[in-house]
Amino acid sequence: MSKVYIRTFGCQMNTYDSERIASIFKDMGFDQSDNPEEAEFAIINTCSVREKPQIKVQSEIGRLKSVKGIKIGVCGCVAQQEGEKFLENFKDVSFVFGTDAIGRLYEIIDLVQKGERVCDTATNDSEISIPTFSRATSVSSFVTIMKGCDNFCSYCIVPYVRGREKSRKVEEILDEIKYLVNSRVKEVTLLGQNVNSYGKNLDENINFPKLLYMVNNIDGLKRIRFVTSHPKDFSDELIDAMKNNNKVMPYLHLPLQAGSDRILSKMNRKYSYGEYREKVLKAKETIPNLTLSSDFIVGFPGETDSDFEDTIKAIKEIEYETIFAFKYSPRPKTKAFSFEDNVPDDVKSQRLTLLLQEQEKISNKLLQEYVGKSSEVLVEGLSKKDKSTYSGRNPQNRIVNFKSSNKLEIGDIVNVEITEAKKNSLFGKCN
Ligand code: 5AD
Ligand code: SF4
Fold first, then answer.
1. Which CATH number applies to 2-120?
2. Closest approach atom of ligand 1 to CA 296
3. Which of 93, 240, 293, 314 suits a disulfide with 259, CB 3.0-4.6 Å?
4. Which ligand places an atom closest to the C-alpha of 163?
5. Alpha-carbon distance 143 to 283, whole Å?
6. How many CA atoms lie within 13 A of 73 on its CB side?
7. How confident is the model at residue 201 (pLDDT cuts 50, 70, 90)?
């Protein structure tokens, strides 16, 4: 059978898109392979959120072009952004397709097989329709509920590459989840750049909290997660929906980005740290055992030592279990691109290290709090390092490795007594 090699950079949205691309190739008679040497097609699914992943794309093309006879296709955010220019600049690339063009891959591949070079970055700016597709299922699966973003945070390229917010119809989402549950999926993560805006452009009377109630009703589904929420739209109604729907896991990724109100305002985030903190406190009070995670940018234009200190104060006060932190990277077209990128790179690096060091102390402390308690773990398989150990995740999305006296199946949910907390994962036993 012919083979396709797919390399994915970036966020979960890209992982989902790559799964969809794999399924379309499967439909056209191509198996997925990890080895480009045996592949007829190579697809690079790209990310442009920072400069670094964008540079990686070029080195991936450089690596692949030496493979004899391979046809290279580039998709995702860089493809969407560069379009025709990409084909002009990279002679070894045969086709470029944007984030809204995945459904047209059949025609694109047909043309490429006839020897044409193709660029399809046309977008659709209303609702999105994604037919349910089969995928190499694990017990946990991503489900896209919306695409695009209307928020225009001043540093962010997403609105320019993923376009305006577009929601997927409720029926389509529910059908896809039911299909996944029938093929042994127990947990879904609902994906959108800003899930709180879900439904705004649909005719139906629907919003994100209402969607959670509907997904919660699906028989056989055990767990629901979602990313990402914008703090300005994080509502009481959503807090109640998280509390009232037993399948919605007590884990919330709510990116703060910075602790200083001055920087938040320059980032166009539309909330102050105080407003953010108030919402988080309410969520913590309402939802038992809620854990939080966040994204942060250090070294945004004009960030002083004192602004950065506010970020450190914030992580100490909120006590996130996990954070993802990045050095500011100027992105073309964005508002902040016109601000002077005036925090020197070594200062950005120092701040990043310091932030991660402070966070490590907080994470260690919070992880220790699981020890001696019991956690419900969804079994995902055997541990990569030790085949006599099971591996899964607790409701708070933390990896738990554990021994069990009984034989377990992938997809079981078991009570594990946590005996030890290591750097990023928990260890335990199950009787
Ligand atoms: N520079 C650095 N980090 C960025 N992010 C988004 N844009 C940029 C940028 N220009 C980070 C934000 C976002 C995460 C996905 O990536 O923290 O939440
Ligand atoms: Fe990267 Fe954003 Fe595109 Fe995801 S949506 S791949 S984070 S630029």
1. 3.40.50.12160
2. 17
3. 314
4. 2
5. 24
6. 32
7. confident
